[in-house]
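Thread: "does anyone have the structure for this chain?"

Original post by V.I.:
We have the sequence but no experimental structure in hand. Need at least a predicted one for the grant figures.
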Amino acid sequence: MIVFTDILRLLSDHGWSTYRLRAEHVISSGTIDRIRAHMSISTETINTICRLCSCQPGDIISYEPDPKEEEQE
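Reply from O.Q.:
Generated one for you, tokens below.
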């Protein structure tokens, strides 16, 4: 399963509060809610985060085997 780092903390470290992201229409409220809930986000959003934080996708996402999926095999 795909696991996200603490994206909001990373953005905050680069000067982007959730208020600023919304106010400047950089990331929508719905997407911020998805990030908070550790739900999937679009590649467009990942691109935006990487641009804002000068990072690579691998810096914010990783793959970890899901124990539930391994039990089914």
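V.I.: this helps a lot. The chain has one domain: 2-67.
O.Q.: and The radius of gyration is 14 Å.
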